[in-house]
Amino acid sequence: MMMDARKFRILQAIIDDYILTAIPVGSRTISKKYEMGLSSATIRNEMSDLEELGYLDQPHVSAGRIPSAKAYRLYVDQLLERGVISTGESESIHHYFDDRTRQMEDVINHAAKVLSGLTHYTSLVLSPKGHELRIRNLQLVPVSSTSALVVIVTDGGIMRDTVVEVGPGLDADALYSISRMLTERLSGRTLSEAQQMLEESSREMQAHQRQLTGNIAQFMGQAGSASKAKLALGGPSNILNFPEYSDVEKAKGFLSVLETKDKLVDLLEKQGGMAFTVRIGPETGIPELSDCSLVTATYRLGDNNHGTIGVIGPTRMHYGQVLSILNAMGQQLSTLLGQNKE
After folding, report:
1. Which of 2, 71, 88, 199 is most deeply buried (CB count within 10 A of its CB)?
2. Dihedrals φ, ψ of 246, to 5°?
3. pTM for this structure?
4. In sequence order, which residues have a C-beta less than 8 Å from that of residue 316 and are 6 or more positions away?
């Protein structure tokens, strides 16, 4: 038995109807609501075949059918093949962001809030890993006669700052010159690459400069090793608005995954820079999300760095709308964070 065009049209109608209502769908519903030119009996026979093929489940003997995870997978794959992902919402999403908001942490927190508001699902925004970010410039600001503030600016905004000891004879003008020299040498390098370069070049420097660059190199090593990807959540309780999660224990399991975050970070990092991924039900690999779908997209910071945005919702989510919003949001984040190159 094969999946032909008529079966797919009926399956698509069932999925569309179930997404809207969360009520098992019967043949009479399809016959009345969707103009297919088919009788209820014909539709019922096709639904039986679809159930046999594993695309439909029947929760009760007398009830209609509901789509299976296999059905949603076919549905989503067809959406992606047809290019349903549009950029028409980019302009409206742009207005949700303040161009003055440039810090990475502020951007991802705001993006998570906007994304959950637009989709009404739980949203996730994962920043790039700190050690993958590349240095844009480095600034040394005198604090006292013996100390200076080191500010590392990366392609994701201000990465981190710290106060280091400064040797004698390094006034504000000298620190400014060193800042320019280090920026020229280290721009475009990762923190680990920059640390290695500083350690190697410090051997040729005078003693007071060697102490300063050594302190900066040590700080870079600490910053790189401590800079894990940060995950921001939006609308964590949105799932409770769906009847699938009216069961208290089921809701608790879902919220526990959000609270710990570790499983979600691991899952999002597996995207590997792919434009889109759609994990349906058991495909997430997280038992507490077995009745959910996770849809993710990538946003980029330059050629080498990327982060991930996504939404979690019931498997009957509006996939086409979600994919379109994620596409527009990813473009907006790439543009907004890319403006930090100034």
Report:
1. 71
2. -75, -20
3. 0.80
4. 15, 18, 19, 22, 67, 72, 244
- Backbone CA torsion sign across 221, 226, 229, 234: negative
Question: Which residues touch 105 (CB under 8 Å, ≥6 apart)?
Answer: 127, 230
Residues in the chain: 342
**Cβ proximity of 147 and 164 under 8 Å:** yes
Question: Which is nearest to 232 in space by CA: 99, 94, 108?
Answer: 108
Angle of the 172-186 helix axis to the 207-226 helix axis, nearest 10: 50
Element (H, E) at 298: strand 292-301
- 54: CB partners within 8 A, 6+ apart: 68, 70
Region of residue 169 (phi > 0: left; psi between -120 and 50: alpha; otherwise: beta): left
Cα 79 from Cα 59, distance rounded (Å): 26
